[in-house]
Specification:
This is Sterol 24-C-methyltransferase. One of its GO terms (molecular function) is sterol 24-C-methyltransferase activity. Belongs to the class I-like SAM-binding methyltransferase superfamily. Erg6/SMT family. Keywords: Methyltransferase, S-adenosyl-L-methionine, Transferase. By secondary structure, the protein is an alpha/beta fold. It is 47% helix and 16% strand. It has 2 domains: 143 residues, no CATH class; 181 residues, Rossmann fold. It contains 15 helices and 11 strands. It has a 9-stranded mixed β-sheet with strand order 1-5-4-3-6-7-11-8-9, sandwiched between helices. Strand 3, helix 7 and strand 4 form a beta-alpha-beta unit. Helix 3 packs across helix 5, helix 9 packs across helix 11 and helix 14 packs antiparallel against helix 15. The chain is globular, with a radius of gyration of 20 Å. The chain starts with a strand and ends with a strand.
């Protein structure tokens, strides 16, 4: 495994000052959050929340949006310093939604959602592939396996998550098939035409503007290569002039470090503007568009937001449920009062709970999708 970053040593020092020693026990959530540096975690929480002061001024908040776009890299880095341990606690190692087929476990649905990208891209063991915004590497590792051994490089701008990627790849014996790059995906430290294929799972939404990350993907992709993605978008049903709807979308943005959600049409326009040819597109959540993601009718599935609104079997299903989220919040409230968790941990829990509630609302209202799928090609 290789790691490419000039200032990596300093970044790792800062990361360890904040997070303490890396802990990989899946049942050690309180230990992981409990060892965070109180002052640094509080600073990260305040830094993040300082960018979201437009809750009472949503009618005309473009100035706030522009400021968040300018600060997007710092904002998202602070966000993942705050939330990564929470995500692994409730979600596992793949931080994304999936189409939920009846009779299958959450993990089976997650793995199928990831493996579908390998299938659509036609990946094989001779290909070099890029994962844009790789998180802690859950989808990346699944795609290595689903493709029969393609070599996958993940790029991520958060040092804590990169360290977890490296350790997990070593733990699971995938070091020879994975590399990780600490870097900004809107300015990738990679040569032109490096990769045979590119994928991203609910990550490019963190870019200040989608054109910025899509343009970089176009640059590093070989001619004839394809890029497949699940993107977070507003749907055709969303009316930005409806303040009730805008409040829900803003809460989703705030709870997930998104400067501004694009509509599905704006997403496709951004792809075309940087030179891509659209091969396939559609909302996996509703089976709209021309995507071949699902040939089944709705009787085979339940809504994607049931991941958050209705508990599924297992501990993590319970933790993701409304009851589980409230329990976690209550526990952290008690621990915060007696100063057994660092400053900012309770606030992070409350931020994520509000985000979850509004993700469900956005799904029920039909104004938001976390899985607008597209596959595009860089022309020869």
């Amino acid at each position: 495994m290789a790691l490419t970053v000039d200032s990596y040593t300093e970044e790792i020092k800062l990361m360890r000052d904040l997070h303490g020693h890396l802990v990989f026990d899946e049942n050690s959530f309180l230990k992981k959050v409990g060892q965070k540096n109180d002052k640094l975690n509080e600073q990260a929480a305040k830094s993040y929340q300082s960018l979201w002061k437009d809750q009472d001024n949503l009618k005309d908040n473009e100035t706030f949006v522009d400021h968040r776009r300018e600060q997007a890299q710092t904002m998202t880095n602070s966000f993942y310093d705050l939330v990564t341990d929470f995500y692994e606690y409730g979600w596992g190692k793949s931080f994304h939604f999936a189409k939920l087929y009846k009779g299958d476990t959450f993990e089976q649905n997650i793995n199928r959602h990831e493996g579908f990208l390998a299938l659509k891209l036609g990946l094989n063991q001779n290909m070099r592939v890029l994962d844009v915004g790789c998180g802690v590497g859950g989808p990346l590792r699944e795609i290595v396996k689903a493709s029969g051994g393609a070599h996958v490089t993940g790029i991520n701008n958060n040092a804590y998550q990169i360290e977890r990627c490296l350790a997990y790849s070593k733990k699971f014996g995938l070091g020879a098939k994975t590399d990780f790059v600490k870097g900004d995906f809107t300015n990738m430290p990679m040569e032109d035409t490096t990769f045979d294929a590119v994928f991203s799972v609910e990550a490019t939404v963190h870019a200040p503007k989608l054109e910025m990350v899509y343009g970089e993907i176009f640059r590093v992709l070989k001619p004839g290569g394809r890029f497949a993605c699940y993107e977070w978008c507003t749907t055709d049903a969303y009316d930005e002039n409806d303040l009730g709807q805008k409040k829900v979308i803003h809460a989703i943005e705030q709870g997930n470090s998104i400067s501004k959600l694009y509509s599905t049409k704006q997403c496709l326009d951004a792809l075309l503007s940087v030179g891509f040819k659209i091969i396939e597109q559609g909302d996996v959540a509703t089976n709209s568009g021309d995507s071949s993601m699902d040939v089944f009718d709705g009787s085979a599935t339940v809504p994607w937001y049931y991941t958050l609104s209705k508990p599924d079997p297992g501990l993590r299903g319970l933790l993701r449920s409304p009851w589980g989220r409230r329990y976690t919040d209550y526990l952290l409230t008690v621990l915060n009062k007696v100063k057994l968790v660092p400053s900012g941990v309770l606030e992070t829990s409350q931020l994520l709970n509000a985000a979850a509630d509004n993700l469900v609302l956005g799904g029920e209202m039909g104004i938001f999708t976390p899985m607008f799928f597209f596959m595009v090609e860089k022309p020869l």
